[in-house]
Amino acid sequence: MGAGSSLETGASPWGIFAGLAAFALSVAISPVVASRTFTPKFLVMLVVAGVGLVPLASSLRRPVSRERFALYGAAAFVVVALLSALMSQAPNIGVFGLYDWGTGWLMWLGCAGAFGVGCRLQRRDAPWLFGGILAGALANSVMALVQTLFLSPGTTFGPYQGTQADGFLGNPVFLESLLLGAVALVSVRAAGSHLRSASFVAWSACLALMGVALEFSDERAAVGLLALLFIALLVWYRARGLLAVLPTGLGYLVGYLGAGKSLAGRIAAGTSSVGFHQRIDLWKLALEGVVHRPLLGYGPGQLEAATLPHMSLAFARTLQPGKTFTDSHDILIEVAITTGILGLVCFAAWVGGAVLAARNYFVYFALMCLAVELVEPLNIAITPLLFLALGAGLLPSRGSRDAVQPLGTTARAGVAVLCVAALLLGGEMVAGDVALDHAPPAEYSLSNSKTSNSLLFYWPQSAIALTDYYRYDAAASHSRSLRRHYLELALKYSRETESRLPADPLAWVNLGDSELALGRFARATACYERALRADRWEPAAFDGLAQVDMERHAFAAATSWYRKELAVLPPGPERTAAEQHLSDARRGVVPHSAL
Hints:
The protein has 26 helices and no strands. With 595 residues, it is an all-alpha fold. Helix 3 runs antiparallel to helix 15. The termini are far apart.
């Protein structure tokens, strides 16, 4: 699966689209919306799905023998994942995924479409895909340097959490994945180039730049994966391999000396940090969840529904209040828990079949990204790009793919229809996201909140914004009747929030708070108890039950709830407030309600 000889020219429309899609997935942003990386990339992913699904389906009719498992596995997985989504507790989340995350069924549809596009490529298309991946990686590398050297934390494109470069991808682990895959591709090209040629110099410069950016991402997995890549290149290419790995290593060293952090400490923290132990505990919880719903799982994007009810007190104590894992940080465990054993078998046939049938160096990009996703989250840009490269890895390293036939008129019409549908849905998402950016708590705009709620009816964030809006109006109102009117409206949108995200304990807490503000103690109690069925250690639910008992002057019961809340809360402002509430309960003092 080497680089082979010089590539043919005259790319097909499939190759041009693949290159443009690879670049767009890695750099698509929109600074005017709430998430600078989410909905624009979701739009690109949907278009990739629209373009690639019909070709994927047409490939099933006469698959090449060595590609059969991958093609049938991809089609079967899409069907199983859809069934899992529709039969889940929240089909809207199963299909669309969580807001600002998006790893629902549509993401897997995007992966299948990307794989279908890759399967249509011929050898003459390879330069376009290679160029698109490289251009995206270099653009993100330059952005990583700018973030680290020139931008301050808290600015629009400032470093992630103030210290780590994330390029245009919103998270340094996604930047790490993209750059590792690109380094693998370019290293193979460099090792196959003449050492005194201009191309070798160009590849070396690209590798050095990406090496610096990798160090600025401050991620640990890159260290081990780069070492494995270097060893493989040395085995495959010997002296040429050594010269190919030196630029990346030098770039990494320059980044480390210039603005990097303690490498030894970073590696040591890999197995001693709280995050590492949380990940291990999460994997255990997820595997326990498979036992409860083994066939089809809990639905794509619904890890919380699988893990929260079984969480231990010790694990709950390590999390920040209100924080949960929305991804298992392991692609195989994520597939198993969300789509069940059936989904995992189909997924293994898809990925395993494609890797075993791979004929060229694009598979190295896919393997690098896949290796990162064994310990990091899925992503709506990187995961489809992984499958685009995986599909392209099936094209022969020499000659053309004679099995690829032009699509018929009906198939081309199907592609056009799906693309229009993708653009409409993706455009609606971006428009709704723009409106949401100007809704509470960013701005108190009722019209934007309602616009966002009508466009993003499958996500709860717009309903939460409307709840906040009417609660604010209720708190600011001096008329009892008007105050109650606003609280009733807040209750309405709290119910919408809960209906869209029924497995989230905080959605039930939000509904309970609305009921409590209206003095409906029994309903509020039922909501808080429902939150504890979703997560038996949710501190906000304990606090809500304590507030109900305080309003009823049941101070002994309130004291018990506050003690349970304190058993979970870590040191901080919330714990301090809970301690004060506990003191009030012991003294029989009912605090003044915020509403």
